[in-house]
């Protein structure tokens, strides 16, 4: 007999699989989609995340760094405690090299100072959590020293495609630094004004390249995950 008060439980749908773009016995390199948390958040509605999906398939996978929920791109997980220790140390000593691409409002070249010999501009500003408006971060004298590099790839009518390299690794660093220059990222729900937020359905920030020495063999590893974005609408090319 069917009982309305005791319905047959509906099996939960399996979470989409995250397939590594590289794997060996010591590490995994993953393509994190925009909108997916890197690690679990607070509350039952924030438990789905990249690390959980990966650990369902690789139980020895451990977190070594994160990307913002709305940022896409390359992310490493270690396999085992010793690999986690070694890779974490490489991040701490800036032996892991990361580059991003982003679409920002306007043309930051118009107000930029002189670049270095490779065309990179430096932006510095100590970053502090704005406790009353968390998770928003701000440039503040009491913040942690922070430095980012950026260079222009293409300038459109309303936006610019840029490449970024974080020298330090503060929360929201690239987003805060570009906002501080007056050029927030398209689709940024935290740091862009409404008209810039509305220019894209997602945050236009992507971790496109990552390089490091293998934590055990010291073999150079380099990974590229390009994104087909343009500085003119509709910005995301098919």
Distance between the termini: 52 Å
Number of domains: 1
- How would you name the CATH homologous superfamily? Pseudouridine synthase
Measured on Cα atoms, how large is the radius of gyration?
Answer: 20 Å
In CATH, the topology is named Pseudouridine synthase
How many beta strands in the DSSP annotation?
12
Q: Which segments are poorly predicted (pLDDT under 50) over 5 or more consecutive residues?
A: none
For the biggest sheet, the summary is: 10 strands, mixed
Helix content: 10-25%
Strand percentage lies at 25-35%
List keywords for this structure.
single chain; about 240 residues; 10-stranded mixed β-sheet; 4 helices
How would you summarize the topology of this molecule?
Elements: E1 22-23, E2 27-32, H1 50-57, E3 61-63, E4 72-79, H2 81-92, E5 97-105, E6 121-124, E7 127-129, E8 137-139, E9 147-155, E10 159-166, H3 173-180, H4 194-197, E11 205-213, E12 220-224
Can you offer a commentary on this structure?
This protein is of the alpha+beta class. The chain has a single domain, classed as Pseudouridine synthase (2-Layer Sandwich). It is built from four helices and twelve strands; from the N terminus they run E-E-H-E-E-H-E-E-E-E-E-E-H-H-E-E. The strands form two sheets. Strands 1, 2, 3, 4, 5, 6, 9, 10, 11 and 12 form a ten-stranded mixed sheet that branches.
Overview in brief:
The chain is 13% helix and 29% strand.
């Amino acid at each position: 007999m069917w009982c309305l008060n005791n319905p047959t439980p509906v099996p939960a749908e399996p979470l989409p699989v995250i397939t590594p773009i590289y794997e060996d016995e010591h590490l995994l390199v993953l393509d994190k989609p925009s909108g997916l948390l890197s690690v679990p958040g607070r509350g039952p509605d924030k438990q789905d995340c990249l690390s959980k999906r990966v650990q369902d398939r690789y139980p020895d996978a451990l977190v070594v760094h994160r990307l913002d929920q709305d940022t896409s791109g390359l992310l490493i997980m270690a396999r085992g405690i010793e690999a986690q220790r070694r890779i974490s140390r490489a991040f701490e000593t800036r032996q892991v090299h990361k580059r991003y691409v982003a679409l920002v409002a306007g043309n930051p070249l118009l107000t930029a100072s002189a670049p270095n010999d490779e065309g990179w501009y430096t932006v510095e500003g100590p970053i502090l959590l704005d406790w009353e408006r968390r998770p928003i971060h701000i440039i503040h004298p009491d913040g942690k020293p922070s430095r980012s590099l950026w260079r222009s790839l293409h300038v459109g009518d309303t936006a610019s495609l840029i490449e970024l390299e974080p020298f330090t690794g503060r929360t929201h660093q690239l987003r805060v630094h570009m906002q501080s220059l007056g050029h927030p990222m398209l689709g940024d729900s935290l740091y862009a004004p409404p008209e810039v937020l509305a220019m894209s359905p997602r945050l236009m920030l992507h971790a496109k390249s990552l390089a490091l020495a293998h934590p055990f063999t010291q073999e150079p590893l380099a990974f590229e995950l390009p994104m087909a974005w343009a500085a003119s609408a509709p910005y995301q090319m098919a």
